[in-house]
Specification:
The structure holds two protein chains of two kinds. Chain A is built from 14 helices and no strands. By secondary structure, chain A is mainly alpha-helical. In chain A, helix 1 runs antiparallel to helix 3, helix 3 packs across helix 12 and helix 8 runs antiparallel to helix 13. By secondary structure, chain B is of the alpha/beta class. In chain B, 33% of the residues lie in helices and 25% in strands. Chain B is globular and about 50 Å long. The chains are: A mainly alpha, B alpha/beta.
């Protein structure tokens, strides 16, 4: 993929053009996701099913099974890519991902605990509680100090890594104690799976809020990407902005994790790969990450449920298998 | 003595780091068109002083004002429209083109949802060409040399268009010719464009060459005054704890350790 020449900063025109291309790709991916599966539905029938002009099994499959799952996949992919893009800038580390502050670990402990207790209905609320508990612990501990030191991203990052390690130990403990019959379900949740996603509405609403919140600070993020002292000198309220945007990223990640488990790689690879191709202007990168992340996870989920049908793979396996070579190609071709 | 409101003033400023007092009871008035230099030995607190004057670190006591308005009454954005600050070192964490980097200086002038206008781009391009970086718009800033990156940071600062410029070692990473070229440009900002400049300079030759006023920091007390009063053999020998000798004259004047 050749790197298109540009002078770096996003103009409204260039932003609209790139987003239009990505939106078209998302729609194509959606059309494909709705038409393939154990019952093949041609595009005309998909259109009729969506516009409400058809009834019958095919329409029911498209409208009630495939559409919610496809939209959930898109929303989760978009949420994770958005959260990853935010964390990469906030921590000024291109290797940051949405889970770097230990949020997925907290969610996993909640979800696995509910599974272990045999309360299938409580998996999602328990994951949500776990995610927010983890966020509160990390943010709370990062501020506590003998000298009430100012809040720094290094400290936040270290606290997140340590808390994540604690969650990891609890997860390993639960997997060891779990009856064999439950281990597979637990592993699916840990790798990320959209089989259990009932409705896409909460995830889509969360995505809309998170994207709006992030875009409101997009130019501040451009300045923050240049370093904290530069940003402070240019009038960015660094501590407050970082705190608000970490909260937005945590909210987005929690919404994604409670919908589909901890799907890996999307949040790392999508913003990182896009940055190499379209540059690092957050006004373009953030919405582009949402569209590309959503599209990637939608394609991955469609593959996950069709490639070795009738066996369904956890979508996280596909995102890693597709994402690794994609990132390696970008690393060798693009601006790193 | 000018009677106009100083761009930067402070009264009774006290700065200490880790219990060590670096600056005590400093009074300072910097007017438009003046070029001040901060000199002193390593660890004297030069960086601490300029970042405190920039409002970027807490002070232990005293008050700072820009254009007569106390810093406490100015929000971060309003401060950024009045003063620019060049840190000692900048690190590029992400890819960014040269033009993009210079445009960052326009940030405090734009409202939340506003995009850079053609006028902002023109201003950034003009700043780039002032520092000899014209034609490099699309280059990844990380592929530039250390000296080019320093000039790029200065260009971004000029694009910011603040009346007060606080510079921490603006000539670092620059070779001799580029030091003079860059500081000529900086001095011209004071002389021709009425900017007020306070800069930390390590090189006493450059301090003598460009400053009209000086702050000597690191001695028993912080001394301020005209360059002629402060940048003397006696004062600087005491400041650096080593006997210095003035050599050369005019633009070639400097101090050498005996």
């Amino acid at each position: 993929m050749p790197v298109p020449p540009h002078s770096g900063f996003a103009t409204p025109g260039r932003t609209a053009a790139v987003l239009a291309v990505l939106a078209a790709a998302a729609l194509l991916a959606l059309a494909w996701a709705l038409s393939v599966g154990s019952v093949a539905v041609d595009s005309a029938a998909v259109f009729h099913a969506l516009t409400g002009g058809a009834s019958g099994t095919e329409s029911a499959i498209v409208r009630e099974l495939r559409l919610p799952r496809a939209l959930a996949a898109f929303a989760v992919g978009g949420l994770l890519a958005l959260a990853g893009a935010l964390m990469q800038v906030l921590l000024r580390n291109p290797l940051a991902d949405p889970y770097i502050l230990g949020l997925s670990g907290g969610a996993a402990v909640g979800a696995l605990g509910a599974m272990l207790a045999g309360a299938a209905a409580l998996v999602t609320p328990a994951a949500l509680v776990g995610a927010f508990a983890s966020t509160l612990i990390v943010f709370g501990l990062a501020r506590v100090g003998v000298d009430r030191a100012p809040w720094t991203t290094t400290r936040l990052l270290l606290t997140g890594v340590i808390v994540a390690a604690g969650w990891g130990a609890l997860i390993a403990l639960m997997l060891t104690l779990a009856p064999d019959a439950q281990v597979k379900g637990m592993l699916f949740w840990l790798i990320g799976d959209l089989g259990g996603a009932g409705t896409a509405v909460p995830a889509l609403v969360a995505l809309a809020f998170a994207l709006f919140g992030a875009l409101a600070f997009a130019r501040d993020l451009n300045v923050l990407a240049r370093g904290e002292d530069v940003a402070a000198a240019l009038g960015v309220a660094v501590a407050r902005t970082t705190l608000v945007l970490c909260a937005v990223a945590a909210f987005a990640t929690a919404a994604a994790v409670t919908t589909a488990g901890s799907v890996g790689f999307v949040g790392l690879v999508v913003p990182h790969g896009l940055r190499m191709v379209i540059g690092n202007d957050q006004r373009l990168l953030l919405p582009a990450s949402v569209l590309a992340g959503g599209t990637l996870l939608l394609l991955a989920d469609t593959l996950a449920r069709t490639v070795v049908a009738p066996i369904q793979l956890p979508v996280g396996v596909i995102t890693a298998l597709v994402g690794v070579p994609l990132l390696l190609v970008l690393l060798t071709r693009g601006r790193t | 003595m000018t009677t106009e409101t100083p761009c930067l003033s402070c009264r009774g400023l006290v700065l200490s780091v880790a219990g060590r007092t670096l600056v005590s009871d400093l009074d300072l008035d910097v007017h438009a068109g003046e070029c001040w230099v901060v000199v002193g030995p390593n660890g004297a607190g030069k960086t601490t002083l300029v970042s405190a004057l920039a409002g970027l670190r807490p002070v232990q006591a005293g008050a700072i004002a820009y254009d007569g308005t106390p810093l406490a009454d100015l929000g971060p954005r309003e401060r950024a429209r009045r003063r620019g600050f060049l840190p000692q070192d900048t690190v590029d964490h992400f890819p960014a083109t040269v033009l993009e980097t210079a445009l960052v200086g326009r940030h405090p002038h734009l409202s939340r949802w506003q995009w850079e206008s053609a006028a902002d781009v023109d201003r950034a391009r003009a700043a780039l060409s002032t520092f000899g970086l014209a034609g490099l718009d699309g280059r990844d800033a990380r592929t530039l040399s250390g000296g080019e990156r320093r000039r790029l940071a200065l260009a971004a600062l000029v694009a910011q268009d603040a009346g007060l410029l606080l510079l921490d070692e603006p000539s670092s990473h620059l070779d001799l010719g580029a030091q003079v070229a860059a500081l000529d440009t900086v001095a011209a900002l004071a002389r021709n464009h009425g900017k007020a400049i306070v800069m930390v300079l390590h090189d006493l030759h450059l301090a003598l060459r460009y400053a009209d006023h000086a702050i000597a920091i690191g001695g028993p007390r912080t001394r301020t005054g005209t360059a002629g009063d402060i940048l003397t053999t006696a004062t600087l020998s005491e400041l650096f704890g080593h006997r210095l000798l003035a050599v050369g004259d005019g633009a070639a004047r400097t101090f050498l350790p005996v």
